[in-house]
Amino acid sequence: MPSSSTIVLFHSAHGLRPAVGAAADRLRAAGHEVHVPDLYDGRTADTVEEGMAIKDEIGQDELLRRAVTAVAPLSDRGLVYAGFSLGGSIAQNLALADEKARGLLLLHGTSDLADDASTDELPVQLHVADPDPFEPQDWLNAWYLRMRRAGADVEVYRYPGAGHIFTDPGLPDYDAEAAESLWPVALAFLAEL
Q1: In sequence order, which residues have a C-beta less than 8 Å from that of residue 140 and are 6 or more positions away?
Q2: What does the alpha-carbon distance between residue 18 and residue 2 come to, in Å, rounded to a whole number?
Q3: With contact defined as beta carbons under 8 Å apart, do 54 and 13 qualify?
Q4: Cα 18 to Cα 15: distance, rounded to the nearest angstrom
């Protein structure tokens, strides 16, 4: 029988857009408890440039503080961390720092990791456009090797021809076919945790 998880889903640099809520609803429909922190306090952006300006205004340290504050009340549950692009980066940082983490689902984004990063076979699944200007091939290869060295059990799914955040119908990168092929794979991954 598939298991259900408590998932914390972080939004991209575009903020908490309707597509993030729709993804959370899809995960809830599969039986998971999903929390969607708003790290931008209600602000959203239609372009990457606007989103990065909001991110820079808030600052990376403050975004991480907000993320940690959001997950703190849930931390005893063995969370699955998930995120879109920038949110994936935040999710990865939190998952690698949480020895109780059950899994990491990355949609469109990764983060660098410390040389001494270590995890005990953390299941990780990455879904990324191919090519992706924000996740170049050389970066992804190095990221994969470093995650494996850290002890993560990593799966990578590439979507040729898709745009960066191809799961958001409100953004120019949207690719309906790639988005619909992503979700069954992600849901199967979550069901096995």
Answers
A1: 110, 126, 128, 156
A2: 27
A3: yes
A4: 9
Token pair recorded at residue 65: 């503080």
Six-digit token pair at 54?
């909001």
Place of tokens 């689902």: 105
pTM beyond 0.90: the answer is yes
CB 128 within 8 A of CB 160: no
The H-or-E segment that residue 185 falls in is: helix 176-191
Sequential pLDDT tens for the chain (193 residues):
467 899 999 999 999 999 999 999 999 999 999 999 999 999 999 999 999 999 999 999 999 999 999 999 998 889 999 999 999 999 999 999 999 999 999 999 999 988 788 888 999 999 999 999 999 999 999 999 999 999 999 999 999 999 999 999 999 999 999 999 999 999 999 999 9
* d(C-alpha 21, C-alpha 49), whole Å: 22
Which CATH superfamily includes the segment(s) 6-191?
Answer: Alpha/Beta hydrolase fold, catalytic domain (3.40.50.1820)
Q: Residue type at 190? A: L
What's the rounded Cα separation, in Å, for the pair 81 and 110?
12
